[in-house]
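ok trying this again, last paste got cut off
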Amino acid sequence: MDDALGGPEPTSQPDAEPKSGSQHHGASSPAAAALLAERYGKAPTPRQRRRLVWIIAAAVAVVGLAVGSWIVIDQLRPSVTAQEVGFVVHDETSIEIILDVTMPPGERAECTVEALDAQWGLVGLLEAEVGPMTEWVNRVHIDVATSARASSGVVQSCTLLD
């Protein structure tokens, strides 16, 4: 019989054996299993699989412990922060930048401060050592020489000194 498109209707043969040379999955004979083992290697035994799982789990645990330790150590390390409180323009050649510096008592830090003109151009830069302090939060006044009249002063960064 023909189907609606005019071609022969496909027949199904559920009990048909695959032709020799056709591709199929799985090794159905010892010869095919030997061929696959020769080509790809023997399949791991259950003991080898368990060992591999334990090795991978141990490696993941070691990496996790290292990352966790790094995070804890980084959080426990003392730090320093600085916040601009204000500034005073003295004249065409200097500005006083006022900061609140927070760091552990007895520590020293280096703070980089910038003097900026009205167009936000850099007209002064100073790396100033701060501390040691007796309190956690201290108000610091830093005088910065400028190449032109400054209109603002900012803190760029502060880092603890060893």
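PB: full thing came through this time. The chain has two domains: 30-75, 81-160.
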